[in-house]
Amino acid sequence: MEAKNQTTEFVMVGFATHPELQNLLFMVTFIMYMVSLMGNILISVTVWLDPALHTPMYYLISNLSLVDICYTTVTVPKMLVNLLSQNRTISFTGCAAQLYFLLSLGTTECFLLAAMAYDRVLAICNPLRYAVLMNKSLCVQLVAGAWVSGLLLSLGQTSLVFTLSFCGDNRINHFFCDIPPLLTLACGDTTRDEIAVFVAGMLITLIPSLLILGSYIHIISTILKITSAQGRHKAFSTCSSQLIVITLFYGSASAMYLRPRSSYTPESDKFLALLYSVVTPTLNPIIYSLRSRDINRALRRVITSNIFLLKM
């Protein structure tokens, strides 16, 4: 890798081309990052502390919260520092590490969402056998598989990008190390590498998205067979939060990655990246806490018990 590259560090352009927006972006991003951290930590801690939430669905949700905590922490603190600093450099190794963790956490989230969809299929379509089918062992295997898949599959994409030659301009026109802006800096013909990265990204997103699509087709067909309106509403309410989260995640990620380089526009893509790297992780705990009565009740129990302990 050292022999092929003359570049030892990159410069994050970020939002330097919009100096009038930097203070506003810093304030908004900082607030959303704090909300995201507190919301996701609160959900994880609540699931861990409240025995009523020790179920597969909430175990999966707590892992999704953990992914969101890690995902935002990989990008947002560096972005906030760069918004206030004139020194926006990142080392070659640091950039590779940031891209690796971004890809691995994004891949993990894809497979976690697929596992959550499968959980809802069993709960709605096989309610009487749900406890047997979605047992603790299977739940742990699904979560472990999601994390391991993320850590391993992202190695290939990261290696494809950072074995390219970077011998010219070292300014990344983005606020974090991402595949599209890095490919624009590579020397020589990168067509084959772009195709390989695109195909790898397509497979990583396509497999879990097909599983999710198949799961929700099955869920919707089962819900439509329920005769009572109250029963249909209750069944749909158990998976509506996940549908919103899935739409936010896959909608923004697909718009960013599943398109050719010719349609890459740096300025618009920066704001699109803000959507899936900052806004979506901030909305996820809000969506789950607002739409889940169990989490609301558990939060009140945890807060009340802690206040009681403090008074003692």
UniProtKB/TrEMBL annotation:
Specify the domain of life of the species encoding this protein: Eukaryota
| Compartments in which it is found | Cell membrane
Q: Which residues cross the membrane?
A: 24-49, 56-77, 97-118, 138-156, 195-219, 240-259, 271-290
One Gene Ontology term, aspect cellular component: plasma membrane
This protein's membrane topology, according to the annotation, is:
Multi-pass membrane protein
Q: The G-protein coupled receptors family 1 profile domain covers which part of the protein?
A: 39-288
Please list which residues make up the signal peptide: none
Molecular-function GO term, any one: olfactory receptor activity
Spell out the InterPro entries in the cross-references. Answer: GPCR_Rhodpsn (IPR000276), GPCR_Rhodpsn_7TM (IPR017452), Olfact_rcpt (IPR000725)
UniProt-listed PROSITE patterns: G_PROTEIN_RECEP_F1_2 (PS50262)
Question: Which CDD domains does the record associate with it?
Answer: 7tmA_OR10A-like
Print the keywords alphabetically: Cell membrane, Membrane, Olfaction, Receptor, Sensory transduction, Transducer, Transmembrane, Transmembrane helix
What is this protein's record name?
A: Olfactory receptor 5V1-like
